[in-house]
Amino acid sequence: MATSGGPAVPSASTADQSLVRALDDYITQTWAVAAAEVQKLIHDPLELLTRAVQPVLWLMLFGEVMARVRGVAPGNVPYLDYLAAGILAQSALFVAIFYGISAIWERDLGVLQRYLASPAPRSALVLGKAISAGVRALSQAVIVYILSLLLGVGIALNPLSMFGVAAVIIVGSGLFSTLSLIIACIVKTRERFMGIGQVLTMPIFFASNAIYPLSLMPGWLRTVSHFNPLTYEVDALRSLMLKTGTSEYGLTVDFGVLIASTTVLIIIAAKMYRRMGY
After folding, report:
1. Are 136 and 97 in contact (CB under 8 A)?
2. Percent with pLDDT over 90 in the chain
3. d(CA 154, CA 76)
4. Beta bridge partners of 155
5. 267 or 125: which leads in pLDDT
6. Is the pLDDT of residue 26 over 50?
7. Under a CB-based contact definition with an 8 Å cutoff, are residues 207 and 221 in contact?
8. What CA–CA distance (Å, rounded) separates 35 from 17?
9. Cα(87)–Cα(76) distance, integer angstroms
10. Angle CA(157)–CA(58)–CA(201) in degrees, nearest 5?
């Protein structure tokens, strides 16, 4: 209660309402950015078809050949089953890692300046783009699931597992798309960005457990893979996606690493995002 002659002290209920209103505004602003990005995909469905080529080639060519080599996959897991989760993670990675180039296009077209002039927090802008990258990657998941079923992969089709796979894909894609945005904020040109993006994708992919188990790696590469977020994304996908899938680290660790890494990158990207406008 305010004392006579002193400043009025906001009541607890007023403070709670302000917090709820601020949270609602933040969610609305984030969703608006994500929806705008997803609209681009709806208006260009051909992108889905072109991105379907890569997982088809990996599963039908590389997977079928490597399935004849014994001892690659751990235990009694067929190699195609083992590979399916890795290719799903790879497809999502390739969608997300080049996401920053859209920010460069937005700057050149003047869209970025309108974003920066809005009252939306920079973190809401970055988070919205991360969510939209996750939605785009889910389209890859549909393609990989259908192809895997046609190839006889033992896919777990129960709703809980599929929901878990979707969550992993969204968080993982958000992580790598935010990393991509940070790179775009640094290099600022499409040519430099494409060069760096191409340099990053292969090391991230091959220094993970996407196409072979960590036990086959030399010691130094195994150490590197433990610091690679894609390793934990693949581990979670393999556990949730396959009927016989298991997690080497545990889903709690997998989700913890992905969420913590994404959060740190979003904070960094939010601080750097303003630089894109100059």
Report:
1. no
2. 29
3. 13
4. 242
5. 267
6. yes
7. yes
8. 26
9. 19
10. 105
